[in-house]
Amino acid sequence: LAGGIILGVALWLRHDSQTTNILYLQLGDKQAPNTFYVGIYILIAVGAVMMFVGFLGCYGAIQESQCLLGTFFTCLVILFACEVAAGIWGFVNKDQIAKDVKQFYDQAFQQALMAESDMNNGKAVVKTFHETLDCCGPDNAVGAITPLWRDDLCPKKEFFLKNLIESSNCHKKIDELFSGKLYLIGIAAIVVAVIMIFEMILSMVLCCGIRNSSIY
């Protein structure tokens, strides 16, 4: 059940409309940074393997098989080590993910403002960011006044007032998007880690109990 829940959360994060709209973008020959998906794929793998390992543990407990329970414990140790490694990787790269996406947006925004921007897809990339995240412009003065003179990039005039009052620039929205998603990934990883610790303890207790009972 825990594996199924983790797998469901990971698949939801993987196919979330906001992240897929942004991370599938391509600016010329350059693809949007998809480092974020590395953590998602790890969660998907952990969830799927947990479901299989859970079945292995249940079957081993029913059959009172020390071999299956020992294999169950070994698989849990390996999964736990992989999850700790993934957690360390995510903590180290949590700021870099949003930074890479912001740099990709800034490059597209600069191309969209150029006179020859119609020759590339910078405008389309920027408009996708603006429509998906409900924002307009980077975190600077140019971004704040962009709605006033580029209706093709920011069609709503009220964005100017909104930028001043709520600071709804795209840099802030990108930070909020990925920090929220990484927060969910972190919660899921902690829940899985706690469950795994209890599973390892209980499987060893059961395995030892079966071994001791077989003596008599």
Automatic annotation (TrEMBL):
Q: Which organism is it from?
A: Spheniscus mendiculus (Galapagos penguin)
Residues crossing the lipid bilayer are: 36-62, 68-92, 182-206
Record bears the keyword Disulfide bond = yes
Location relative to the cell: Basolateral cell membrane; Membrane
Can you name this protein?
Answer: Tetraspanin
**Which biological process annotations from GO are given for this protein?**
adaptive immune response; regulation of cell population proliferation
Q: Which InterPro entries does the protein's record reference?
A: Tetraspanin/Peripherin, Tetraspanin_animals, Tetraspanin_CS, Tetraspanin_EC2_sf
One GO cellular component this record assigns the protein to is: basolateral plasma membrane
Q: Listed disulfide bonds for this chain? A: 135-170, 136-154
Q: Which UniProt keywords apply?
A: Adaptive immunity, Cell membrane, Disulfide bond, Immunity, Lipid-binding, Membrane, Transmembrane, Transmembrane helix
